[in-house]
Amino acid sequence: MGTTRIIKKYPNRRLYDTEESRYITLADVRSLVLDGVNFAVIDKKSDANITRCVLLQVICEQEQNGEAILTEGFLSQVIRIYGNADAMQMADHLEDSLNRFLAHQNNFSRDPSQFHSKPETPKTP
Fold first, then answer.
1. Is 27:20 a contact under the CB 8 Å cutoff?
2. With a threshold of 0.85, does the pTM exceed it?
């Protein structure tokens, strides 16, 4: 699959793409995701992998400025599940459901006719 591109997050909250040797924005991170680039965001001070936190920031920006898809009810339920014994099971279920949805959407975009119901032809005796 190749190497993982490293993005460093500095204490001033700026993101630095080590491959391109330049500072990037959350919009640039979103573009990396859309382009399927394998990357990790590393906190420069602690060396911790903070990729998930940065991806959540990208989602927050999309929800604020783009077309919101996560309802308040859904987000409240996600918050409530933290600390619950079933949290990992829910995470697996959400990821599996999203993968199935995207696969279905991909199949539909390739051949939409397969999803239209075809009228049955009457059989003659």
1. no
2. no
